[in-house]
Amino acid sequence: MRNARRTNRGLFIACGVLAIWSLACSSRAPSDRARAVTVKGSDTMVILGQRFAEVYMQRHPGTVIQVTGGGSGTGIAALINGTTDIAQSSRPIKPAEAEQVKVKFGVEVIETPVALDGLAVYVHQSNPVSELSLAQLKAIYTGRITNWKDIGGPDLPIVLYSRENNSGTYVYFKEHVLENADFAPATQTLPGTAAVINAVAKDPKAIGYGGIAYGAGIKVLKIRKDEVSPAIAPTLENVLSGQYPISRQLYFYTVGKPSNPVARDFIRWVLSPEGQAVVKDVGYYPLPEETRREIARRWERDS
Amino acid sequence: MTFGDDQRRLWTDRWARRAILTLSLTAIATIVLIFIFIFREALPILTDPRIQQEASFRHFFHPMEGPDPASRYMWQPIALVPKYSLIPLILGTLKTALVALLIAAPLAIAAALYTSEFAPARIREVIKPAIELLAGIPSVVLGFFALIALATWMQQLFGFPTRLNAITAGTALALALIPIIYTVSEDALNAVPQSLREASLALGATRWQTATRVVLPAASPGIFASLVLGFGRAVGETMIVLMASGNAAITSWRFTDSVRTLAATIAAELGEVVFGSPHYHVLFFIGALLFVVTFIVNSVGVYIIHRVQRRLRGEI
Q1: For the domain B86-312, what is the CATH superfamily, name and number?
Q2: Domain boundaries, chain B
Q3: How confident is the model over B290-303, as pLDDT tens digits?
Q4: Given CB atoms, is B247 within the 8 Å cutoff of chain A?
C-alpha cells in the first residue's frame, strides 16, 4: 500500500515536470517571432533562398531570415502546419494542399513566382550523345529504350538516376517529360541534385536530371522539343525566350499576406530588380522584366 | 554521526529514488506514446474504405495485371494511379540485411573468438574498444562513405552493372552490424565457465580444438542472439541504405540490382507526403510493420541472452 502511494506520487511529479516543460516551450517571446522570418522548402532553391536572405539582411540590419531545405513538399507541409512564414517550392502547390491551407487558416494561399529554372539532363563526360528529344527522354525513363546504342551512343545499358519522389524536380519531370507515365522500376532515386550529379559523374552509363545551377563536372544535353525542332541548350536566353523545352517557375508560397511586415517586405524586395539580380548571381534565371512587374504589382495589391 | 545527518541522508535517498523513477517512467511513456501514435496513423489502412480503395492489403501484396512481369509489383506512390506494392520494398530490405549479415557475422564472430580465446590481454585491450568504436560512427557518415568511395571501389572490383546496389549497401550496413554482433558474441564467449576450458585442455585438446568444439558450441545461443539483434538493426537501419542502395524499387532476386528498403522509403517520402492521404497512411503502415518486426526480433534476442545467462549461473 505504502509502495503504491509512493509510485503515485512519482507519477504526479512526472506529470508536473512535463507540464512545466511544455509551458516553457509554448511561451516563446512574441516579439522574437515578429522579427525572424522562416523560409523552408525546395532543396533546389535552398542556395537561392540563402543568397536572398544574406543580401536582404545586409541591406536591412536587425532583420533575421532563416532559410532551410527539406524539399518542396516539406516546405508546403510546414506552411500548412504554421511552422514557416514562406514556403519555397519548385512545383506548383497541389489543390489538396491549397485546400488544407484554406481550411486551416481561412485565407487563400498566395503564389509568387520568384525565378525561372531550366531542368538540365546530364550524362557522363565521356558519353558521345549530346542531344535528345523529349520523346527519347520519355522512352529512356519509362524503360522502353535501355541501351545507349539505340540513341547513337555506345553499346552499353543505360543506368537511370532520378530525384526522390519528395522533390518538386521529380514531379515536374514526371509531368512534363514522362507525361505522367511511370518511371521504369530500375530508376534509382537519390537524395538531392548534388547526389545525382555525383553519381552521373562517376558512371559512364548514367543519365540523370536536375537543376542547372548545380551543373558542374558533367555533360549537359541539348534538348529537342520534337523530332524536327532544333536541339536547344539550357542557356539564359533560351530559358527566358521559352525555347528550352523543360523550364519551370520557382515559387514562394505564403498563407494570405503574411502578418509579419519583414516577410512582406522581403518578398517585395525579391521581386525588385535588386532581388532579381541575386537570382542571376546564383545561376538561375530572373523573371522576364514584363512578368516581374506584373507579379510585383500583384503582390503590392494583395498586401 | 548525528541523528540529523541520518535523516538528511534518508531524505536525499528518497528523493533521488523518486527522480530516477520519474525519469524511467518518462522513457517508458515516450515509447508507449510513439507506439500508439504510429499505430493510430496506420489504422485507416484497415478501417477506412476511402483509403482502402487506393491502399489495402490487396494493393500491398497482390500482383497487378499486366503483360510485363517487371511491372506487376510496383512502388510508385506519386502517379495518376498510385501503386503501393510492398513486395519490392520487403525484398529489398531482406536482400540488404542478408548481405550485411553474411559479411558482418563471420568477421565479428571470428574477431570475438580471437579476443576471448586467443589474444593476449594487451592486444585484446586494443581490439575490443576499436571494434566497439565502430558503433559510434554516425550511420550517415557510413552511408556517405559508401555513396562516394565504397560504391566506386566495388564497381571497379566486381564490375557491377549499377554502382549502387544491394551488395554495396549491404557491405556498408555490415560496418554498422559488426560492433553489435561482436559485442554480444564476445560477452557470450566470455560467459562460458572457465572450468569447461580447463577440462578440455586437461583432456589433451589444443587451444583451437577447445575454442571451436567446446567454447563456441557452449556460447552458440548467445551468438545466435547476436545475429538476431544484428538482423533487427539491419532491417531498421535507414541512412546507410538510403544513401548507398540507389533506392530503385525493383522486384528481383539479383543482388547486383539497386534496392529500396522499407526504412529508406519512409525517410525519403514522409517529408513530402500530403497529410492524411492514402500515401501518408501507407508510410505509417510501413513504420508499424518495421516496429513490430524489430520489436519481435529484439525481444527474441534479449530473451535468448537472458536465458543463457541464467543457465550459466545455474538457475535453470
Answers
A1: MetI-like (1.10.3720.10)
A2: 3-42, 86-312
A3: 999 999 999 999 99
A4: yes
